[in-house]
Every structure is written in structure tokens, then in C-alpha cells.
Amino acid sequence: MEGVSGHHRTRTVGIGRAHAKAILLGEHAVVYGAPALAVPIPQLSATASAGWSHGPADTSGGEGNLSFTMTGSVSRAMVTQVSGGLRRLTAAFKARTGVRDHAHLDVIVDGTIPPGRGLGSSAATSRAIVLALADLHDRELTGSAAFELVQTAENVAHGRASGVDAMAVGAAAPLRFQAGQAHELSVGCDTLLVVADSGTYGSTKEAVELLRAGFRRDGTRESFLHRARVLVDTAALALAEGRPLEAGAQLTHYHELLATAGLSTDRIDALVEAALDAGALGAKITGGGLGGCVIALARPEHTRNVTVRLHDAGAVQTWVVPLRRHADHV
């Protein structure tokens, strides 16, 4: 059991924070045990506060003693989904840490991560809540315990989740993730990652089923996974050895792999093309697909032009993330 036992409330409010992430390469293949490369996006974050409410206590030990609020422009459907997951997450947290207090809780999440864009909004929200609950109840959670709790929520939200989102939203630096294990990704070159929001929602569940149906129909699973592994490993080596041009080419090749599988859209393809025309070293869709965001790897001197061209091509928001070994952690 994590933390310490006891039932005394040592705090009135607990705070937890997590950040967004972008997958450099490895989407979908990572679910089948292949590696993926991910980058934290500290500019976009989720902050959760958990506090005691004056509502009636649930002495039955059930999960009805919880109120949940999300600030910002989020849809009612997302609030409903997260609210249901939060009750299960809270129950799992209590079971893990031995908390037996049934007082009414108020949980508030304030986030700047756009949902449905492949940036890890659901995982960051779950991690922020887990850390807020730990802070409120004065429990120490190990990194593996926090990961497992967030992963439980991700499996509910997305089906069988790979775990890369649950790991990356708490990472302090770029990482290589495979089969539940993560290692810091060595970056030996000075590049920037431009993240562009297409303004359209993606659907991870729909994309996963579309890819799975294609595998069954065409028998392409093994060739897809082999190609994905080669691109990920080639990009990781190129980044470590300071060859950004080669690393960028792998991003573009991975986009072509996903597009061939039917996971891109005309709008996403137009953003990828715009970034490449503006001098990006490589560009691709990021996340589950069928919408969401595009990422472009660029040298510092080309970043402004890439950003302008992405907006001209229809991006509604952009963020620039330094891709280096030691990233700032939220």
C-alpha cells in the first residue's frame, strides 16, 4: 500500500498538476508493443484542486460523495465522461492508499489542453486529480503508483491504452516508451517542435477500430508494425546523434504510414504540406488520428515561417516546444 495509514485530514485543499504531450512517432503501433517517442508540452497544463465540501457524507462507502467541475470551454459530453471516470479513479485511489474517509469531496479541474486533439487531455486531467487527492489526503505516491492509477482511467476512456499518455503527461523530458517502460530520449541537436491545432476533433477509439479492421481485411498488421519500429528507431538514433534532418524525415514517413492506413484527413494533410513547404524538417499528424493536431520539426531560424504558414493553412492555434534533453517540467 502506498503512503501512510490514518484518517486525519491534514489539509483542506489538495493540488495536483500535469501537462500535455505530443507523440513524435509510434502512434497505434505502441498499443501492439512497438516503441513510441513522446515529448512533454509544459505550455499546456491541467491543474486539479480537491477539497472537503459541506455536502452530506456517504457513510455507505459508495461513490456518490463527489462533486466535479471543469472550467473553460469543454463540452457537456466530456464533463460527463470525465465525471464518470473520476468516480472510478477516486475509488481506485482510496483502495490503493487505504483512505477510508467518506466525507463529500469537491474536485475542480482547470485546464488549457484542448480535448480531442491527441495532446493527452484525458491523461493529464486524471494525473492532476490523482496528485490532488494524494496531496489532500497526505499520501505519498510513487511514480509507478501514479502511472497505474492514471492508466486505469485511460483504459476506461479509450479502451486498451498503451500507457504512453499516462507516462508522458508526467515526464520531465522527451522519452522512449515501450511495453510499459519509459527511458529518457537523448536529443543531441537544437530543434523546435511546432504543434498546430487543426481545430477538429479526433477520435482515438474510432481510429483504433479503423486500423484494426484494416489489419483484418488486408493482413497488413505485421508490415505496419515493422515499418513503425524502423521509423521510430531511426528517428531516435538520429536525434541522439544530432542529425535533425534525418529525424525530421522519419516524422514525414510516419505520417505517410498513418495516412495510408486511412487515419489522416484532407485538413491534416494540408497542414503537413504547409509545414514542409515552409522549411520544416518533417511533419506529421500526432495522436490517434482522424483530426487533432499536426507536429512539425524545425530549425530555430525556420520556426516563425513554419508557424505563419500553418496558420495560413487553417491551424487555429500553435505552440512551440523546445526539443532538447532537459525540458522544463510543470
Could you walk me through the main structural features you see in this protein, from its secondary elements to its overall organization?
The protein is built from nine helices and ten strands. The protein has helices at 76-97, 121-136, 143-158, 164-168, 204-218, 221-240, 244-260, 266-277, 303-312; strands at 13-25, 36-52, 66-70, 105-111, 175-178, 181-184, 191-197, 282-286, 293-298, 317-323. Strand 3, helix 1 (76-97) and strand 4 (105-111) form a beta-alpha-beta unit. Helix 1 crosses helix 2 (121-136), helix 1 runs antiparallel to helix 3 and helix 2 crosses helix 3 (143-158). This is mevalonate kinase. Its EC number is 2.7.1.36. Pathway: Isoprenoid biosynthesis; isopentenyl diphosphate biosynthesis via mevalonate pathway; isopentenyl diphosphate from (R)-mevalonate: step 1/3. Its main location: cytoplasm.
Question: What topology does this entry show?
Answer:
Blueprint: E1 13-25, E2 36-52, E3 66-70, H1 76-97, E4 105-111, H2 121-136, H3 143-158, H4 164-168, E5 175-178, E6 181-184, E7 191-197, H5 204-218, H6 221-240, H7 244-260, H8 266-277, E8 282-286, E9 293-298, H9 303-312, E10 317-323
Parallel strand pairs: 3-4
Antiparallel strand pairs: 1-2, 2-4, 2-5, 5-6, 7-9, 7-10, 8-9
Pathway: Isoprenoid biosynthesis; isopentenyl diphosphate biosynthesis via mevalonate pathway; isopentenyl diphosphate from (R)-mevalonate: step 1/3
Subcellular location: Cytoplasm
Family: Belongs to the GHMP kinase family. Mevalonate kinase subfamily.
